[in-house]
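Input/output pair, single chain:
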Amino acid sequence: MSQSYEVIFENNRKWLEQKKQQYPDYFKELADGQNPEYLYIGCSDSRVAAEGMMGLEPGEVFVHRNVANLVHGLDLNAASAIEYAVSHLKVKHIIICGHYNCGGIKAAMKPQDLGSMNPWLRSIRDVYRLHQEELDAIEDGHLRYDRLVELNVQEQCLNVIKMACVQERYLLDGYPIVHGWVFDLRTGRLIDLNIDFKNILADIQKIYDLTDSEWVVNARKKAG
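Output:
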């Protein structure tokens, strides 16, 4: 067993002792359950740690990560995480967070066969296609990459807003609100893209309205 592997367990022992000294009931409270206000959907990149950059502790943010922070309509993994966070944990905020210098975004912008990654990256290429005129007008390649990161976050926010569980809970409770962020690895700064959640929901409602299910109608009657 490599030394680098073994050091993880030594770090764990030091960490738990430190936690118990600072907060004697820390692990008891942690084991009692979670009540996060945030669902964070981010990239799998090892340089981007949700709780650390948000200044939150375990139990305060429910996290789902994948390559390039995508929300595919047929991705049951992401859909299950969102459904659980929205319907059971009752989170108040859903955050899609991309980051500059994202390898998935860069890979999607290259005319290259990447094997099993092709279907996944196709969604990013679709975002490029939708915004091709704007992106091709950016001469600086680094700035073009950065802008596609932002546009991809916006598109994934839209995909989340299209989901029935999000629409239904928002109509009943006024939450969750969907936010789009970008993490700048070069500065450590979080950037809020100021996604206009309410107006986006209103704009797409005619086509993506999924709120006429019987249980929502009944819940509205009870609430009234």
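Residues 88 and 114 are 37 Å apart (CA to CA). The chain has two domains: 1-32, 34-223.
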